[in-house]
Design a protein that fits this description.
By secondary structure, the protein is an alpha+beta fold. The chain has 3 helices and 4 strands; from the N terminus they run αβαβαββ.
Length: 78
């Protein structure tokens, strides 16, 4: 099993979702780059998938002052 280190903002966001009994998954390039050993700077954004509503996700992301796009009910945190 591989343990991935994630940045503090992603951890904080995950904690917020977990406290509300919601799922939040890291997906996309940041996962690939971490597994293959690429530098974090090579991943300009962090993508998440969730079972939460868009409204819930916006409430969690806004206090962290993060950007958000919402295609197909997924979050992209910039």
């Amino acid at each position: 099993m591989t343990t991935l280190e994630i940045d503090a903002l992603a951890k904080d966001l995950g904690d917020r979702f977990q406290a509300a009994d919601r799922e939040l998954y890291l997906v996309g390039g940041v996962v690939r780059d971490t597994i293959t050993g690429r530098a974090a700077a090579d991943s300009p954004d962090t993508d998440f998938a969730t079972d939460a509503t868009l409204e819930f996700a916006e409430l969690q992301v806004t206090p962290l002052k993060l950007g958000m796009r919402a295609p197909f009910s997924s979050l992209t945190v910039e």
